[in-house]
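Subject: Sanity check before I submit

Could someone independently write out the structure tokens for this chain? I want to compare against mine line by line before I put it in a report. The sequence has 377 residues.
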Amino acid sequence: MRSEKAGHPAAPPAKSEAMPESLVDGTRRRGRGARSNHSGRFESERRLAFDDGWESLAELDAFRTEVYAEPARSIITRNQSPDISFDQSINPYRGCEHGCIYCYARPSHCYLGHSAGLDFETKLYAKTNAAELLEKELAARSYRPKVLALGTNTDPYQPIEREHRITRRILEVLERTGHPVGIVTKSALVLRDADILSRMAARGLAKVAISVTTLDRRIARAMEPRAATPPKRLDAIRGLADAGVPVAVMVAPIVPGLTDSEIERILEAAQIAGASEAGYVLLRLPLELKDVFREWLAEACPDRANRVINLLRSMHGGQDYVAEFGQRQKGRGPYAEQIALRFRLALKRLKLNERRHALRLDLFQPPVAKGAQMPLF
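---
Independent answer below. Compare away.
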């Protein structure tokens, strides 16, 4: 293994194991999305894996999921971006085992000294004290209730939630305090919590958005290797709707030249399953993600790679990504306008978004902080 200076400002020592700069062998990354594990932008060195003549690369272990307990110092994140529909959010986990190749959250793993590639989907952090912290922050005298969004960065129902159950404990706190919550997920595991969600929904306190990127199982398996299959996501929409929980479908992200032809079919399938609202977001490729996605595209869809990138750039002024509010989510130009028009026409035909489910804020009852006196009335 060899290290090279990368020309970046000095940074704390990386937490990651040595990260190769070339594509990782397929047997080591089986069942994963990323094809590489490049050093993040904050690292002062880049580590290169190379064959020393003794075929030592073949001795490297396969990438396995590692979960680290991370007691958080605060749990509610505030948002001030004008093109985001929520003011505050909670992310129970860092990193995401779903391994979605397009995930815009991948670059956030670089703040931890990890890679946006394979590290993002194999080195995961569980905020083990999330529910306790939430109760403390909701008890603060200065707190004013606003809808809490779960799943804005990484999926709150990714596979490790089965064991850690952090998301469920958060929901228990929110139900007990009468606090509204909106969830975004692409996991059928959300049905496990249909009991809590149905009770909250009956009081106007809960809604769920299920992300459906494609109905093509082959493309889904390649893009989202450890996420629920498209039929399972439709089943989740149906199960939640049957439990009385308002459900939206998020066609997100739309990958031009790869999944945009499915917009109408996805909306129709979701509406039949019980979705009453819908939205979409175009593919975003910030920072390290642009290289991670290009590597995947070249290997998984070589016949469409150039078209996908050219269409994407046509919607971002000739660049892979523009971070400008408004444009980053929907893009600009003729192709972006065509997608927006198709989406609007499909919504009208399917009668989606005719009624928006606003969540209630007036039922919130602050929890009693530990050691504090309970109110007399």
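---
OP: Matches mine. For the report I'm noting this point. The chain has twelve helices and twelve strands.
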